């Protein structure tokens, strides 16, 4: 049977009654659990039960409440992110408060199968638990980059990808993680937006960055042929891969190869809590610039709370096609220049442009920015008369337009205070990734499928948002202690 949608009040009453029954007046001794109790008490997850109704049949015994299943998964991540689901159920048996806060009576806990059924059949109803088929051509190890950086995609890759996506921009390609994003956006992100925790949701500043996720020490695969038995090695026949969406990539911070995913994350850059917005798992070898393009198009199609006004990216994303893509989406790119080029750019006049986008006068001097002419939509540059490059009374002038070169002449000039103020928030994406990997032990998941990794990532993201709700309203929330336990007064 379909699960009954229980209101959050019903859940709260259940928790009160169960705490009374199992802890009585000694609930006051649960001091170290108060933050967890308050987070569960306040976070209304009943939306998941309503959302997943269609995934359950009308027949058979009534299903476990999806809100409680999800809440239990969050309590697991809040308290014991390093263990597996089986060990988590044992942990709930030993620690009744974890069961109660999940929404379960401690003597009536769901089994491991129920947890997997909830994720595999309801949250991710696709037959395939990965994005790519398990049967693949054998792949070579990825290349090591130069200067400790991940190898750049081949020239033209980003341009071709952007061109392809621009032709297909109107086509919405559903992704198996969409139900999770839908729940996340409507029940978690929107709450954070109302609390003012993600900046202005109607004009978001988004920071994007990728981070390695190690899933296994070696890439495991089985042959589909018997070449090896016949003494033929290194053949190119298909193999069956246990983790088809993963491959080998270069981890520049640990300076080693790894097997797994490249997790590309969008973060609310103006969020004081560095709150995550949109996750995407890519193969380990994928470069930030390629991942960004896919994420930008997907997020643009899915984010319904407003629009993305600014995108803050590091120099690995400094490719002309990315500026054009974001500009077409109505998003202003804030991207650091990748100073690979040392030579000036010719303009067809006697003025050259430095690799940083500053006009150079015929005498080889950097021209000075002289304000923005809004009516003409162009920036004015000048050289003083003392330079001698011009006989004009006010010296030599030159104009640059963003539309001529978005990369070199961004709407907000890179040397302005406005740029510095906006761009310094880019590191919020690094803090988000660090929090997910260190505090919530993302890589301890030991999962094999993209489905389970996606579930874990969204679970951790939800925890990060609920943590921020608590941190930003601690005083008010702490007043609720007396409602939950009158003896706590
Ligand atoms: Zn073979
Ligand atoms: Zn000059």
UniProtKB/TrEMBL annotation:
Pfam entry (one): DDE_Tnp_1
A biological process term (GO) from this entry: DNA transposition
Residue ranges constituting the Transposase IS4-like domain according to the UniProt record: 248-462
GO terms, molecular function: DNA binding; transposase activity
Xref: InterPro entries: Transposase_11 (IPR002559)
Bias (Basic residues) ranges: 132-143
Region (Disordered): 129-157, 349-375
Name of the molecule in the record: Transposase
């Amino acid at each position: 049977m379909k699960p009954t949608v229980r209101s959050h009040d019903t859940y709260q009453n259940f928790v009160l009654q169960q705490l009374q029954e199992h802890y009585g007046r000694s609930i006051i001794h649960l001091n170290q659990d108060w933050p967890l109790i308050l987070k569960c008490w306040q976070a209304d997850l009943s939306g998941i039960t309503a959302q997943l109704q269609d995934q359950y049949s009308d027949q058979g015994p009534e299903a476990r409440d999806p809100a409680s299943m999800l809440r239990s998964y969050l309590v697991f991540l809040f308290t014991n992110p390093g263990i597996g689901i089986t060990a988590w159920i044992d942990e709930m048996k030993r620690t009744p408060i974890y069961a109660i806060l999940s929404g379960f009576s401690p003597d009536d806990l769901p089994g491991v199968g129920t947890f997997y059924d909830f994720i595999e059949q309801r949250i991710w109803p696709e037959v395939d638990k990965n994005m790519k088929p398990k049967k693949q051509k054998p792949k070579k190890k990825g290349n090591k980059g130069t200067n400790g950086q991940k190898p750049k995609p081949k020239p033209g890759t980003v341009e071709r990808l952007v061109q392809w996506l621009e032709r297909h921009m109107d086509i919405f390609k559903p992704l198996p993680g969409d139900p999770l994003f839908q729940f996340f956006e409507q029940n978690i992100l929107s709450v954070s937006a109302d609390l003012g925790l993600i900046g202005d949701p109607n004009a978001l500043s988004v920071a994007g960055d990728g981070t390695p996720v190690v899933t296994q020490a070696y890439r495991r695969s089985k042959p589909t042929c018997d070449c090896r038995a016949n003494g033929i090695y290194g053949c190119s026949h298909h193999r069956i891969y246990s983790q088809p969406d993963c491959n080998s990539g270069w981890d520049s911070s640990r300076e080693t190869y790894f097997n797994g995913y490249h997790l590309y994350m969008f973060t609310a850059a103006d969020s004081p809590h560095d709150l995550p917005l949109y996750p995407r798992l890519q193969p380990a070898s994928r470069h930030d610039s390629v991942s960004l393009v896919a994420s930008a198009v997907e997020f643009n199609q899915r984010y319904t709370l407003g629009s993305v006004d600014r995108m803050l990216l590091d120099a690995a994303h400094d490719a002309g096609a990315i500026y054009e893509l974001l500009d077409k989406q109505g998003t202003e790119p804030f991207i650091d220049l990748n100073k690979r080029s040392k030579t000036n750019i010719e303009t067809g006049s006697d003025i050259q442009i430095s690799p940083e986008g500053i006009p150079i006068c015929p005498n080889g001097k950097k021209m000075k920015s002289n304000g923005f002419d809004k009516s003409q939509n162009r920036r004015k540059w000048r050289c003083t008369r003392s330079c001698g490059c011009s006989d004009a009374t006010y010296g030599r002038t030159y104009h640059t337009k963003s539309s001529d070169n978005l990369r070199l002449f961004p709407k907000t000039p890179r040397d302005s205070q406005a740029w510095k103020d906006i761009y310094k928030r880019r590191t919020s994406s690094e803090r988000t990734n660090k929090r997910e990997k260190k505090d919530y032990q993302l890589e301890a998941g030991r999962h094999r499928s993209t489905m389970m990794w996606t579930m874990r990532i969204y679970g951790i993201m939800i925890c990060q948002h609920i943590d921020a709700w608590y941190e930003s309203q601690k005083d008010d929330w702490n007043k609720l202690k007396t409602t939950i336990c009158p003896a706590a007064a």
